[in-house]
Amino acid sequence: MNPRKTELEDLGSREPNARSQGLDFIRSIITEDVRTGKHGGLVVTRFPPEPNGFLHIGHAKSICLNYGVAAEFAGACNLRFDDTNPLTEDMRYVEAIQQDVRWLGFDWDDRLYFASDYFERLYDYAVILIERGKAYVDSSTDEEIREFRGTVTEPGRESPYRQRSVEENCDLFARMRDGEFPDGSHVLRAKIDMAHPNMLMRDPVLYRIRHASHYRRGDEWCIYPLYDFTHCLSDSIEGITHSLCTLEFKDNRELYDWVLDETQVDCHPQQIEFARLNLQYTVLSKRKLVELVQKGHVSGWDDPRLPTIAGLRRRGVTPEAIRRFADLIGVAKVDSRVDIEKLEYCIRDDLNQRVPRVMAVLRPLKVVIVNLPEEQVEELDAPYYPHDIPKEGFRKIPFSRVLYIERDDFREDPPKGFFRLAPGREVRLRYGYFITCCDVVKDPATGDVVEVHCTYDPATRGGDAPDGRKVKGTVHWVSAAHALLCEIRLYDRLFSQPNPEEVEPGQHFTDSLNPESLVVLCKGRVEPSVARDPPGTRYQFERQGYFCTDVADSGPGALVFNRTVSLRDTWAKVQAKEAVRAKGTKRQATTPATAPRRGAARGDGNRRKPAAQRSRRTVDLSGLGLAPEQTEKLSGDPGIARLFDEALRTYSNPKALASWVTNELVRESKGRPVDELPLTGAALGSLVALVEQGTISRPAAKRVFAEMVQSGGDPVEIVKRDNLEQLSDARAVEPVVRRVVGAYPDKVAAYHSGKTGLLGFFVGQVMKETGGRANPEVVTALLREALG
Q1: For the stretch 584-604, what's the b/e string if a residue is b when 16 or more beta carbons lie within 10 angstroms of its beta carbon?
Q2: Exactly one of 27, 61, 191, 276 is catalytic; which is it?
Q3: Block means of pLDDT (10 residues each) for the chain, length 788 residues?
Q4: Residue 737 phi/psi, 5° resolution?
């Protein structure tokens, strides 16, 4: 009898919510299960953290998936703490995890569970295995157990204690529970097969002795079940239908099913694995995060440089941005490393729509308006939001004789393309007046400019000149007499390498810590409008980035601001372009918008609408993290810009889309105007999504794209018609890998002798046998395992 059956039966009467047609593989499996009535048509998931640390953004992906699936299929999601290790777990982690889940926007209602509440039942299940001859007490040492386990190519050896009688095992296990034996003297092991090809199935340990006080159960227990025994049975006890976990537990699935089968439970959940999140420029290993905290590389679990949810929250990231990021990266079957710019894009896009704009100067340079009386102070009106944000609100900004501007906004000897303040040059003060530099004051000792003298034009209040003259540069500023002194913490990526876990022999992952991950500026100034805002308030500091007041250290009279994410700087783009030109890089020409039309688009059903009939919505390319040359190509042709805009509405991965538009489209269109192509932005977005989610390989996608450019069509239908779906299931690829490895024994021997470059040869052979459909990452992983 399922102990959760009564509570779960009412879920079956609920109607699933409408879902998008583009289902990931997990939702496709669950959709079919619901349709066929598997698990009684119920969908019950769980999020099962261990309370031995703080949650990070990888956990956020799992939270969004488990709670999202439950909501979409009118089911339920449990929050369960897998708390079976008394040495590492603590109630403060339990409380922090609950806070993080709620902050992300999810709730477990009355479905809060602890594996430690099941200790009695888990013990009874262990006794059942012993009585059925499926488990035994082993008195070997840890070293002996490891030695007897064997290797990938060699079977293990049976423990000398494996043939103990059921009666002896029951007696020893009971005495283990009663505390008669010291730590490490005995373990309970499953009796499966010491020659099993899956090494996890070679009599795995189920229970260990650990005389330690549990944070919830105190000293009631001195034996504790291990994860592989606890997790599956906890799922069963709670009536979980779909146990979603990351790929590192793929090999554990066989043991998961074995325990449930051998204990003969009523409820047998289905384990499904998905790719864990690996994010550039950070680490998501809990062990490594603990090391960073304990060794003082960061200030604590909520350090804004960490990928922990607490750190992201303190940095000013919103839960909406994290949920958007989880949706953007999707759910895949193969591990990959996600570009951190995807996360930064989601943060930037979210904050752009919600936070007020204010002015702050990070590195102040004093400006004196020499033709403004010292006692004169004006108040200028400034909106909190730009015209394209559907929010309203204004604040008053004081304008006085002495101002501060950003030190980088002045150059005594300006280079070409620099349009900000310089001797003799006129610029616009944001929301204020035109000012012209007439003199500079330097430090006699260093020669550095410490003060700039300017005149202002009283007729240009608000930023326009009555005579119609134009200025190219606009700078932000604050009034020196009214601005608030503040500390600015400029947070950046924690590591200087995209993959800090790839280290050379003799190195440690902390060797690639970014020394510039935190820069503290102690003399910043911010406009006075923020004085009464509570800690945690988010802003866009105009032309600087997105910031928030620090919830721990900021207070009245001692403001501290954390940078959440930067903005894209126009001058930095100019410098990047100059650097490209200096290296002699040739820019790829784009088709002029006025090029003569050549021929009509084929495939009337997929013909793009005339430009006049299409949406005029535009994209702010400056905030998408694109390379300067990509931005130039996308903005240089209205047709290309519109296609990119339409594609972005279908699949919000600007960098991936920009690559296809600026490279493949130019190549395949062969000079034809984009408006005449049968290719639609929606179809392009769908195709790029198929590639990024691992459904098809990039070579196959290029073949599909060429057809779409020439004849139009739906990429999903083309992939289905031509059987181009990428093979990402290791079970489908593994036989081919074994066949290839077996066909070249001489090259296998050469590989083992040190010629590891032959791995590329084996990958090529597998790809050839699968017609290019196999996922190269899956192939590589399987080959590494097969070749040892």
Answers
A1: eeeeeebbeeeeeeeeebeee
A2: 276
A3: 47 47 83 93 96 95 96 96 95 96 95 97 98 97 94 93 97 97 97 95 97 96 97 97 94 96 95 94 93 95 97 97 93 87 92 96 97 95 91 94 96 91 95 96 93 96 89 94 97 94 88 94 96 94 96 92 83 52 46 34 37 42 67 76 82 82 79 83 88 79 85 86 78 84 86 77 80 77 83
A4: -60, -45
Q: How many CB atoms lie within 10 A of CB 24?
A: 17
The one catalytic residue in 191, 286, 357, 425 is: 286
Buried b (16+ CB within 10 A) or exposed e, 353-388: eebbbbbbbbebbbbbbeebeeeeeeebebebbeee
- How far is 654 from 341, CA to CA, in rounded Å? 10
Backbone angles phi, psi at 227, to 5 degrees: -55, -50
Q: Mark residue 617 as left, alpha or beta (left: phi above 0; alpha: psi -120 to 50; beta: remaining).
A: beta
Please indicate whether residue 50 is annotated as part of the active site. Answer: yes
Instruction: Tell me how far CA of residue 748 lies from CA of 284, 739, 742, 754, 784, in angstroms.
Output: 34, 12, 8, 10, 11
Task: Please state, in angstroms and rounded to a whole number, the distance separating the CA atoms of residues 75 and 20.
Answer: 17
Q: Whole-angstrom distance between the N-terminal and C-terminal Cα of the chain?
A: 45
Q: DSSP labels for 156-218?
A: ----TTTT--HHHHHHHHHHHHTT-S-TTS-EEEE-S-TT-SSGGGSS-EEEEE----BTTTB
- Is position 276 annotated as part of the catalytic site? yes
Q: Report the candidate in 307, 344, 304, 302 with the shortest Cα–Cα distance to residue 324.
A: 344
β-pair partners for 308: 56
Q: Which of 7, 14, 38, 50 is catalytic?
A: 50
Task: Assess contact for 419 and 472: CB atoms under 8 A.
Answer: yes
One-letter amino acid of 302: D
The Cα–Cα gap between 12 and 222 comes to 40
* Selection from 663, 700, 665 nearest residue 680 by Cα: 665
Number of H helices, E strands in the chain: 25, 27
Side-chain-side CA neighbours of 687 within 13 Å: the count stands at 34
- Calpha distance 255→190 (Å, rounded): 10
C-alpha closest to that of 207 among 135, 304, 306: 135
Secondary element (H or E) of residue 137? strand 135-138
